[in-house]
Design goal:
Largest sheet: 6 strands, parallel
Shape: elongated
Structural class: alpha/beta
Radius of gyration: 22 Å
Length: 310
């Protein structure tokens, strides 16, 4: 997959999905799938136009609160069949008018023949361009536009905002359903204090990315991919109130793993279900006993998920 970080004209015709696509949930997948399918059918390059950062971080000064890292976002886009990504700094394009965005960017830069977007897509300076205007402007350039309808789940629209709320509440099962995959992290393993090793519960330690929304602190059943195989995981996300931590950490114990150490390697941890909130224990022995108890709970959840029961 080709990644372009400047508005360099495409030599070949493209079918483009437009959006920030934070989380790449099932609604986003519908938009991107439309661009990919149209591109393959008509011989256009399946393309995504997205941004390095959320417009809200620049326009409103909000702290980054993403659902996935940029690396995971790009990896997922490639798995969807996208062949080219325009990954652009929003600061450099935020003042482009809606008209110039269509004529200078979509027409001349992307060399677009087809556009896919969400039902609520807005564009141009001040987000003044609507989906209806996009269709009208693109029609004048001979470009077809298809806005995908909203997708609902449980009677409410699927959205990044709703997924963030589920993650913050620890409702990982709902977040996973709306994402269409398991929520989690693929991050390097870092050295820890090795307290778990001394308790017979050695853990993989991963630093929580500062740009991501923070899940409810606590313990989760997880699925961990290590050396090409999936293992049951007991993942704690938080600040370790019993023994203390200076920052938010992801610690995962794999009860059935007996392989090599994985320091400095990227390990994929996917959360399945919230087991309990993080809490402070009166002593480390009580914490150790609770970890073993959580291990049994995680195994039950993991093996049910593997059998397709969950």
């Amino acid at each position: 997959m080709k990644i372009i970080k400047e508005l360099i004209p495409s030599e070949k015709a493209t079918s483009v999905a437009l959006g920030y696509f934070d989380g790449l949930h099932i609604g986003h997948a519908s938009v991107i799938g439309e661009a990919v399918e149209n591109g393959r059918k008509n011989g256009y390059i399946p393309t995504v136009f997205t941004l390095l950062q959320s417009p809200r971080t620049i326009l409103k000064g909000e702290k980054s609160n993403n659902i996935i890292t940029l690396d995971e976002k790009l990896s997922l886009l490639e798995s969807f069949g996208v062949e080219m990504v325009y990954l652009i700094d929003f600061e450099g394009i935020k003042d482009i008018t809606a008209e110039d965005f269509v004529h200078q960017v979509i027409c001349k830069c992307f060399n677009a023949r087809h556009i896919a977007c969400g039902f609520n897509y807005h564009f141009g300076a001040g987000a003044k361009g609507s989906g209806g205007q996009l269709e009208q402007m693109c029609d004048g350039c001979g470009i077809t536009v298809l806005a995908r309808p909203r997708i609902t789940m449980g009677g409410s629209p699927v959205s990044s905002t709703r997924i963030r709320a589920s993650i913050i509440e620890g409702d990982i099962k709902s977040a996973n359903a709306m994402l269409g995959r398991k929520y989690g992290f693929c991050l390097p393993v870092v050295h820890g204090r090795q307290l778990g090793r001394s308790w017979g519960t050695p853990t993989l330690n991963q630093e929580f990315p500062s740009e991501l929304v923070k899940p409810c602190f606590g313990v989760y059943a997880s699925s961990v991919t290590a050396d090409g195989k999936k293992y049951c995981g007991v993942t704690n996300i938080g600040i370790k109130p019993t023994v203390g931590s200076d920052s938010v950490l992801i610690e995962t114990w794999m009860p059935d793993y007996c392989g090599r150490e994985l320091y400095d390697e990227k390990v994929d941890v996917r959360l399945l279900e919230h087991i309990r909130k993080e809490k402070k224990f009166s002593d480390v022995e009580m914490l150790r006993q609770e970890i073993y108890k959580n291990g049994e709970q995680a195994k039950e959840i993991f093996y049910k998920e593997q059998k397709g029961i969950l």
